[in-house]
Amino acid sequence: MKFYFRKIFILICLLVISKLAFTSDTLVVDSSKYPKSIHLNYQFGKVIHTHAFVKGENPNNEPYNLFQAFSVQYGIRTNGKKLWQQLYGYPVWGVGLFHIRFFNDTEFGKPFAVYSYINAPFNRWDNWSINYEVGFGLSFNWKSHELLENGYYYPIGSNLTVFIDFGINSTIRLARNIDLNVGINYTHFSNGAVKLPNLGVNVFAPRIGIQYIFNERPKYIEQTVPKYIKEWEWLITASPSIRQVGFGYVDNNDTLAIAFNYGVFTVSTGVNRQISHMIKFGGGIDFSYNEAYAAKVIMKDGPPEKAPYSFKDKFLIGIFPSFELVINNLTILTQPGFYIYRQKVENVETPTTYQRIGIRYYLLKHFVAGVNIRAYNFSQADFVEFNFGYSLRWKKTYRKK
User: Fold this and answer.
1) What is the 3-state secondary structure (H, E, C) of the chain?
2) What are the structural domains of the chain?
3) Of 90, 127, 144, 347, which sits with the fewest C-beta atoms within 10 Å of its C-beta?
């Protein structure tokens, strides 16, 4: 039951933060005045072979190759009443429902997702545009599995997962209220190792869709963009998390598996330089206490037990560059990290790098809150981080005039 509450909490965070980011400003504007649209999409594509189960080591003894998906999106079409809307080319943002069916599948179930998204143009012409789209949410209705079931390690063991979607597409105007949308999307499903198994599922596919705009298309407002005074930022955040680690063992000639929960706590600090209304660069350092790092078990009478460990065994230091896309009070961040200190572990392969992708929302003047996915090998989700912190920003430059 705790697992369900965590996932519901993540979904609420994603939807509420996106709502705040896209509607809050110094000027309160009623979003009901923005034109609305409905989008219907279809995808037919390929499952990416990132682990043995989808490569063919499964009860069907055949690889997962093809899938099809349907989605419907409810969009709010911005018109430039707020500066960030103009800076991002008058994007569409909203909520969506996504349903995926895997061909020749009896093990995954029939998942569907609820998510928030933003679709913004790289460039727009009179009757068409080239866009990028980012979506975050939760997927439901996966068929649940044990860590080791019938001799197979399943990629997803829970009914719920995080849903992350990236796409590039082109929108073409067909009629007064109708657009055609054609593009390519990459989608990732995982539960952040809150519950095992969690190898994740990744898919890639072209997408075709039709959009209907209610009433009239937005009339874009152009305002003078003030010159941005480059700004420095010092940020410190605390990120608690939980990670589950599984272990295989043999009992009475039977191969079994067991999973334990481990706590993870990270304090991060860094300096950023915002160089425009939209772009922020920086870097920082992570100090982590990760009980799941190189976790081991000991065998006694009965099932395995957690092996004892000390603080220094689980203490890690990592450094990372940071890139953030600023959307009003929200930022979408990516941080590829590298461990510069960790205990060496014999006969255990541990990643030397890690990746962080997530969203951060600025509350009031100095406080921040967000949620991240921590991963390794650029494909495997490690755990989910909730972070809370303090931000200090200033515009002073120390360069000689």
Assistant:
1) CHHHHHHHHHHHHHHHHHHHHHHCCCCCCCHHHCCEEEEEEEEEEEECCCCHHHHCCCCCCCCCCEEEEEEEEEEEECCCCCHHHHHCCCCEEEEEEEEEEECCCCCCEEEEEEEEEEEEEEEECCCEEEEEEEEEEEEEEECCCCCCECCECCCECCCCEEEEEEEEEEEEECCCCEEEEEEEEEEEEECCCCCCCECCEEEEEEEEEEEEECCCCCCCCCCCCCCCCCEEEEEEEEEEEEEEEEEEEEECCEEEEEEEEEEEEEEEEEEEEECCCCEEEEEEEEEEEECCCCCCEECCCCCCEECCCCCHHHEEEEEEEEEEEEECCEEEEEEEEEEEECCCCCCCCCCCEEEEEEEEEEECCCEEEEEEEEEECCCEEEEEEEEEEEEEEECCCCCCC
2) 35-213 (2.40.160.20), 231-394 (2.40.160.20)
3) 347
